[in-house]
Fold each of these.
Amino acid sequence: MLFWLTELSDGGDFFNLFRYITFRAGGAFLTALIFGFLFGKPLINVLRKKQGKGQPIRDDGPEGHFVKAGTPTMGGLLIVGALLTSTLIWARWDNPFVWLVLFVTMSFGLIGFLDDYAKVSKQNTAGVPGKVRLLLGILIAIIAALWASAYHPEALQNQLAMPVFKDTLVNLGYFYVPFSICVVVGTANAVNLTDGLDGLAIMPVMIAATTLGIIAYAVGRVDFTEYLDVHYVPGTGEILIFTAALFGGGLGFLWYNAPPAAVFMGDTGSLALGGALGAIALVIKHELVLAIVGGLFVVEALSVIIQVLYYKRTGKRVFLMAPIHHHYEKKGWAEPTIVIRFWIISLILAMIGLATLKVR
């Protein structure tokens, strides 16, 4: 919104700063961070008052989780609120990719909110039926896929860009939409599965979002794409503002979610943020790089899939408990140890993902 201030500029004054994406990204970060600090405590107080017993704790979960009973959920509202407010203030409103990512984020956030509300109001862990959530997620992903394709350069429409291999595109044709569904819905649910310990999901999401934001800025500039030999996607630079806002809002939330958490993110936050990562990957044509940058989420999701399939076939378990972070809890690792080590892994994967920009 503040981009309009450039109309007041003569090219050499303060208002000219608003032309620069990097300046507005910094503003988005600070705005979201301040939003988190200002509204975090009041939101937690409201959630605690309205929810009473807080988020239901699974009976079959790790024993150490029962001490968390009474902790309110839906803390994702703080992140989503900071993210939405900051992006609308600092991003250009004429950029279709910004609206696409916001649409996916808010839509998945709404699904998560309804799921959290059902769990809290009924005081059980069932929530919205899985098939309903999946169907709604698929519908959102289809819209996102068609939306992104419509605004991509013609040469990139329905194409899958291959990292590392220079100028290599795979024409997915009719499979582009199903592939996009896997990316968006898969990422949303993978982040949701990762959100099982205090602070575990939010930092890897922030790291992945920042990495994708840097890539978005690079592929949105002709000079950078020529130097890096990656595909140019006009308009993606504005996504950096969204990811900067996500990082700021994430820090504001982490202030209250650090062990012991004063509030849980809930599906409201995890589905929204996971959907956002998937949508950004679609926009910038780096879907496969997302699998590297978000490798932690991939492992968490695979651990559940492997556990379920193996148990159905053999009646035995591969892991002591899935997702895999619970496996390490069962092995006796302290919760902060798991969280920090998973953060470190996420940072390493982010560096590898960034390296694919130059390794050609």
Amino acid sequence: MLQITKYSAIAIEEISITAIRSQGAGGQNVNKVSTAIHLRFDINASSLSPIYKERLLNLSDRRITKDGIIVIKAQQHRTQEQNKEDALKRLQGLIQSVTVVQPKRKLTKPSRSSQNRRIEDKTKRSEIKALRGNISDLG
């Protein structure tokens, strides 16, 4: 079980994990050993609560396909086990990010004194910049 929150978890059977060859330079083992992990998780077919599914599908994350499948490729480590743990942690983090509800922002209005300070600063700055210009001949 992959623990998401205190009350929800995902069964490992819902996650498809396949080993693939890592990309890039790697010496003697790069063409022989499949150490990278390709993780696929179908959001719609999962046992997550409907609200988490909806939030995940509304995320604009490049790891989520149009069909609602999360695809994570882990190839940072040298062993398959470490890459598998890394992929599972990244999946867990992605799902946990939608479990936290962001508080609504309270609309505020800048105070009159802060508005006046801003205008004064702008006029001072414009005067400084005006002094940098070319000096015309005086006579």
Amino acid sequence: MIALVIALGMTGAAPAAPVPPTLQRKNLGMCFNKVVGDKMSDKLAEDAFKAAATTACAAEESKFRDSWVSYEVGMKTKRADAEENANSQINDYLQNAVETYVESVKPPKT
């Protein structure tokens, strides 16, 4: 009986596993997708679109970065590596949005 009480007490003391930033990742992707749609009629140059997307999604980017770094640090990753990983993922999402936008506003081939 005492062993059961001790075992239950020990399992309750275990730290919870970090939660992956699924919602923040989804929100960042949705923000970039919205900017692509919103800027289609503007026919911006690639650099101008990239700047507009970065500005428009700054809050979502920050939330994703913070939650990703917290998640990875919770998984025992060095903070510098976690920050680099978060920045890499954000850059990938942004680059994907830029490529989607550029392809979408390109004149059709004749």
Amino acid sequence: MSASLLEIVDLGDGEIVLQRAEGDSEPLVTIRFSDESRIYLMDNGLEVAKAMIQAGIQAAAAIAEQNEAEASSHTDSARTLH
């Protein structure tokens, strides 16, 4: 994936998207809050969406690090998954 500037945009209809700042490509992430959720969140939907996106990026980075570590220490011995 090439480096590009990303932006989080509230579309105003309960949908918040993460998209590239330049161009009109399809959103990378779409978060849609139901009417009930929007009432519960009051005016904080955008902040909740930002936290969700940040948590997702951090989780993806941690998984990538774990996969790298496993690949570099991979041996031919049997492995057990619990």
